[in-house]
């Protein structure tokens, strides 16, 4: 189990809160009896105050409905990427793109609409090594060949430096965004998709 988990990058698919269109939460599929999804808190504001509850393990939780942003895959990376865990990144992204949930069996029909853009939130990724960076560059190049736009948000200084040296922008990855909403607004201007929160 240790080897298996170390080979799987910790990534989460995020969706927009229907209560507040400027906040995003992991889409994990767990449901309350009230029919409202329960998710770990995530806001575009790092200093936002926690006003939810905690589960028995002490994890922060909120009661809110979360929906996919149509045409956009929003993925949060929750750890450093390195040679051992980055190998599975491509396959996991493909699965999220098709099904929107890692637990769906690959034999099922795709559930998601075609992806027009991918937003990587790197708030939880403090570092990336050379092997993982090459894998990520190849992923971005493949998206570019498919005319899928790629944006990185909340990139730390060390990762930004590696992106600059490796030519991430030339590969098709934009990384000058401070939060998800800014990236989505940029994508909305560049693409014929509507990612604006609905009231």
What does this protein look like?
This protein has a domain at 2-11 and 68-190: STAS domain (Transcription Regulator spoIIAA, 2-Layer Sandwich), CATH 3.30.750. 29% of the residues lie in helices and 21% in strands. Strands 1, 2, 6, 7, 8, 9 and 10 form a seven-stranded mixed sheet that branches. A three-stranded antiparallel sheet has the order 3-5-4, with no helix packed on it. The protein is α/β, with parallel strands linked by helices and 199 residues long. It has helices spanning 2-6, 89-99, 130-145, 157-166, 168-171, 180-190; strands at 11-17, 24-26, 38-40, 53-54, 60-63, 66-67, 72-77, 117-121, 149-153, 173-177. The chain is built from six helices and ten strands, in the order αβββββββαβαβααβα. The model is unreliable at 29-60 (pLDDT under 50).
């Amino acid at each position: 189990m240790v080897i298996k988990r170390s080979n799987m990058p910790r990534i989460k698919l995020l969706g927009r809160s229907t209560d507040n269109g400027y906040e995003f939460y992991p889409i994990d599929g767990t449901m309350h009896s009230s029919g409202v999804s329960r998710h770990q808190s995530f806001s575009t504001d790092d200093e936002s105050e926690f006003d939810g509850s905690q589960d028995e393990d002490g994890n922060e939780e909120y009661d809110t409905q979360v929906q996919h942003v149509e045409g956009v895959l929003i993925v949060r990376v929750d750890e450093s990427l390195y040679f051992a865990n980055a190998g599975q990144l491509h396959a996991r992204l493909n699965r999220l793109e098709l099904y929107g949930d890692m637990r769906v069996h690959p034999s099922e029909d795709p559930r998601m609409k075609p992806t027009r853009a991918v937003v990587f939130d790197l708030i939880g990724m403090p570092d990336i090594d050379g092997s993982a960076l090459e894998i990520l560059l190849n992923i971005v190049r493949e998206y570019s060949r498919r005319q899928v736009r790629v944006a990185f948000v909340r990139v730390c200084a060390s990762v930004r430096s590696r992106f600059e040296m490796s030519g991430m922008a030339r590969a098709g990855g934009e990384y000058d965004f401070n939060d998800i909403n800014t990236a989505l607004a940029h994508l909305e201007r560049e693409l014929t998709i509507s990612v604006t929160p609905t009231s």
